[in-house]
Each structure stands twice: as C-alpha cells, then as structure tokens.
Amino acid sequence: MQRVRPGSFHDLIGRYYRSPDFLDPGDRTREVYRGVIERWRTRYGDGLIRDLRTPHVEKMMAEMLPHRTAANMLRKRLAALMNFGIRQGFVSTNPVLATRPYKVESEGFHTWTEDEIARFQQRHPVGTKGRLAFDLMLWTGQRGGDARVMGPQHLRDKRLQVTQEKTGATVSLPVLAPLAESIMAVRSGAMVFLISEHGKPFSRKGFGNKFRQWCDEAGLPHCSAHGLRKAAARRFAEAGCSNQQIKAWTGHTTDSEVSRYTAAADQTLLSDAAAELLMANLRERLANEERKSLEGNG
Predict the structure, then answer these.
(1) Are residue 125 and residue 261 in the same domain, yes or no?
(2) Which pLDDT score is estimated for 207?
(3) Which comes out higher in pLDDT, residue 107 or 160?
(4) Mode of pairing for the β-strands spanning 170-174 and 155-156
(5) Are 166 and 29 a contacting pair, CB within 8 Å?
(6) Do residues 126 and 161 share a domain?
(7) Contact 125/178 with Cβ under 8 angstroms?
(8) Of 11, 123, 141, 282, which has the fewest Cβ atoms less than 10 A away?
(9) pLDDT attached to residue 275
(10) Nearest to 228 by CA among 240, 241, 214, 217
(11) pLDDT higher than 80, residue 273
(12) How many other CB atoms are there within 10 angstroms of residue 18's CB atom?
C-alpha cells in the first residue's frame, strides 16, 4: 500500500472524510461531494496543501468551462476542504475564498404549471405507478429520493412522517385525499409504495430514469421530479400560505430557500390576495375609527 505523503491533499482528504464536516450531511449529499473531490484528487492529490494559490484555483475552474455549474461546485468543495485544512493546522489562510464563482444564467429546475400537471395526470391516471410517483411528490412537496422510499411504515395516525435523506430534517404531513386515493389504488404489499418492474424498490438512479420516461410519455421533456417539489411550494404560495407554513411542508429552513421555490407563484393570484388583505385591513381600521368617534360623541 502506497504511503500517503504528509501535508498532501491525499492526507487532508483522508482526514476530511472522517470529520463531521463530511459525515454530517445526508448520504446523497456525501455521494455528490465525494464525486467532486475524487475527480479533482486524481489529478492534484499528490500536491502539498501549503502550495495551493488563488491563481491555481482560478485555472482549475477555467479548465472546466463551459460547465460553469460544475466549476462552481468544485470551488465550493475546495473552499470547504481548505477551511478544514486551516483547523487541522496545515495552512493559515484559504486561497479559494479570493476567487469568484461563475455567474450561471439559470433559474434551476422548471416549476410545473397547472397545465403541465393536468397533462401528466391525463397520461398517467390513478392506479398507475407513474401517477403514484407523481402524487407522492406533488402532494407532499418532497424530493424524488424521499418519495421512492416512502412506505406504510411512514404512516402514523393518518399522517406521513418523512426524514429527508438530504438534510436529515423530519416532517410530519397530513395525507391529503388525492394522495390517499393514489396509494390505495396501487397496493404493493411491500415496505415501500413504489415497486419497480423487478419487484424491488427503485434505486435512486432507477427512479430518476423511470420518472424521466413517464414525463416524456406525457409530452413533458422539460419537466422533472424536482420541478414537482417546486410546483408544490408554488401552490402553497398561491393559496396564501406563509413562509413558515410552506417550510413546515417542504423542510426548508430559510425564507430565501422558500423564495426560490415559490418564485413561479401566480402573480395575479398573489396580488388579488394582497388586495383582499389590504382592503379588509382598511375596512377594519375605518370601523375602529368610527366606533371611537361614536364613543367620543356619546
């Protein structure tokens, strides 16, 4: 077995993988982080941590163009790795922080519209696996990775209790009627609601590929599983729910995260709701002023 050179990135990465910095995030997040780090490590692992400079990082990022998102992801992981290196005493400064991420002109995953939701429902009626997968995400606001492992064991007192794979957050959600109907129509008899053609739970990749197929069959090549999560958040926003109420469903922890997910909320509906709240407040204020006036005259 080849000996790891002390002070090298091989040395640092081995320590990082055993630290809370890497171990605390969920399995899926760790898998993504490890993939980014290992691809970089193949080329630069033998280098000494103390030799890394800001221009080196900028060059590494530039070599990944035109894939700006991937370059930004590498920057984040190197920044985290160097911060860990500072705490380990390898270096005193983080040269990654002086770099700038590339601007990415993207709003992320497309948020499903109501027309697109209707098209999918028409192509995949209640009783099909495609519809059950769809309903598990739309009516819970959860990620596809969490939907694929939901099962009867998560049902407690007519509520669905889900511990999110990515964040470890646990949400307890009422089972809404459309979802209950869909679950009852596709009884797997297994520990998960969704079973593949092989009679087993979907793998993460298998579920993603299968849902991609179901979307394509409905003529929705631009729609995705994650876009359904955004559609669920949009619906809550259009219903006038507060950020706190939406976070209770989606498991988000900050208002900024919710804002990104609800950006596609229908502006007309929201402005109408705001107008109703405004006028109700004005009517109440005028009524109070009139009451005080009458009391004063009396």
Answers:
(1) yes
(2) 93
(3) 160
(4) unpaired
(5) yes
(6) yes
(7) no
(8) 282
(9) 65
(10) 214
(11) no
(12) 9
